[in-house]
Design brief:
Two copies of one chain form a homodimer. By secondary structure, chain A is of the alpha/beta class. Chain A has ten helices and 18 strands. The first copy, chain A, has a seven-stranded mixed β-sheet. In chain A, strands 7-8-9-14-15-16-17 form a seven-stranded mixed β-sheet, covered by helices on one side. In chain A, helix 2 links the parallel strand 4 and strand 5. Chain A is globular. The first copy, chain A, starts with a strand and ends in a 7-residue tail after the last strand. At the A-B interface, helix 1, helix 2 and helix 3 of A face helix 1, helix 2 and helix 3 of B.
Chain lengths: ~300, ~300
């Protein structure tokens, strides 16, 4: 029931021999989601021991090359590996046109279908949902239409408190009723309120990916209470003006968003190649938000739910 | 006056964490040519200390992803780095459509122009020429239209033999005449044949890139006398049938082509990922053509001209 985020790359646009551009794998209950796909993403997945065949869906924040250009080679490879299941790719417009051109000109005989789902980067809404997981779009403020993504586990199913079963001698039928969230009427006529006899065995976790973006107080509100927050920090705090002009954030911006949101932990990344030593960036953020870590390639950040008492 | 070939990648299509797909930089008299551009090529160039801004032209053998998908991120980066000079890309059809879609959808504001030059993969002809260098297309036999490339230094300018200058007391004008390749008439009426008084200071070198291809005796004739030959060897000699079916060559095929062509040295590459240990492949080729080497990532193969005597 944990969430694990593996950093495949977190360098900014200008490539260097040091780091790979933005890409992450988010593993929620053994569902693997790729978030952004900078060049080299498939090789980085292999290095991190994550099989590309496991991918459940892809989320692309925006159509700048350093977040996108690794996707097409990956799609090609999934074909070589014989994927048959369609693969949904959530991305802003005009990704559909790019995909269409790619499939028509480069990969006309893929054995599976990559399906584009358009993301409206102006809206904060659910774009993906299944039994256990929701993904919400997060409008970001960059030079081109850009969305962050908020991954939320759904609340786990209700358990019935052991003492209630024993005290009231609940039948199997009554237990099922309680697990559905209903109140339970006893033979005596007494009605047990659902909340008094059930509990959630653990809390649902959440992770938000926010890159690339200017500082945004609105974003902080949208990710309120998030357990783990990735927020870009392309520049040091003294580069505030340049960050703002270029649609990026500083270390201080990222830390302030984490602080306002009441996040559990913060990961900063997407560092400009001008910074060889990242420790000063980390320190700047930690002064505002102590639970900050650097997005280092190959590292996996895991958050575990706290078991709840009955 | 040397030719240096740097291997940026020589793995075959299925990506692994081990090696990069096909890409090389050929440096002829400080002119840098990129030959094929598998994913990660720009990062590999950086690792090998070759500035992408130095690229003079790009030659793509065929439009399979493992020879191509690193090109688009590289074109994007050249824009970030402020390239202004047009960049010629020699590639078979329908590369032009891919480039058009890429420029329209992904990189509409590049500060330079990537220009496609169509390569007719059925013809062995000069496709690039300047004062010092020629590049010839080499029809290869693969599953899709594919061309190899033969890089030839032009013969260096004529020098006039020192003894001739002294013996006949040649004037500056007569020396210039001889350097132009003309015969020289002395005052005595005697005519000195150009060949008797001039020489080429060194031999012109040549390098041929042949990937991907079936064995071809015709290819061996086209690269006759080549100083350095890169020939793919996707499979070991015992996989001849599969190699043939898939449009690839074996170690033995590559070595036979080198032998028939009378090549100086052979580099084999484009190995299937099934081979973890490449030494057995090398030995197979060396049994037929001893001067064989493995294309290892990051390695540079240099050929130097032999100075010629007067």
């Amino acid at each position: 029931m944990s969430i694990a985020v593996t950093i495949l790359g977190s360098s900014s646009a200008k490539p260097s021999s040091m780091g790979h551009p933005s890409a992450q794998v988010v593993n929620i209950n053994e569902q693997y989601f790729l978030v952004d796909a900078g060049e080299g993403v498939q090789r980085q997945m292999a290095r991190c021991g994550i099989s590309a065949l496991k991918l459940r869906a892809v989320f692309i924040s925006h159509l700048h090359g350093d977040h996108l250009y690794g996707l097409f080679p990956l799609l090609s490879t999934l074909g070589l590996y014989g994927r048959r299941t369609p693969l949904r790719i959530y991305a802003p417009r005009p990704f559909g046109e790019m995909l269409e051109a790619f499939l028509r000109l480069c990969e006309s005989d893929l054995p599976y279908t990559p399906e584009w789902v358009e993301v409206d980067t102006t809206k904060h809404q659910i774009i993906f949902e299944n039994d256990t997981t929701e993904v919400w779009s997060l409008p970001l403020r960059h030079r081109v239409p850009t969305a962050g993504y908020l991954f939320r586990q759904k609340e786990p199913a209700l358990n019935v408190k052991k003492f209630a079963i024993e005290r009231y001698g609940l039948s199997v039928q009554q237990i099922v009723q309680a697990k559905r969230g209903e109140d339970v009427a006893l033979e005596s006529g007494e009605v047990l309120g659902n909340e008094s006899i059930t509990y959630r065995p653990y809390g649902a976790l959440s992770y938000a990916y926010c890159s690339d973006t200017n500082y945004s107080a609105r974003l902080a509100r949208m990710v309120e209470g998030v357990d783990l927050l990735y927020h870009e920090a392309t520049y040091a705090a003294d580069m505030r003006k340049i960050a703002k002009e270029r649609g990026h954030a500083t270390t201080a911006d990222a830390a302030k968003v984490a602080q306002m949101a009441g996040a559990g932990r913060l990961i900063i990344g997407h560092f400009s190649t001008r910074y060889r030593d990242l420790e000063p960036l980390l320190k700047e953020a930690q002064e505002i938000f102590p639970a900050t870590e650097l997005a280092r390639e190959g590292e996996t950040f895991v958050i575990e739910p706290n078991p709840r008492k009955q």
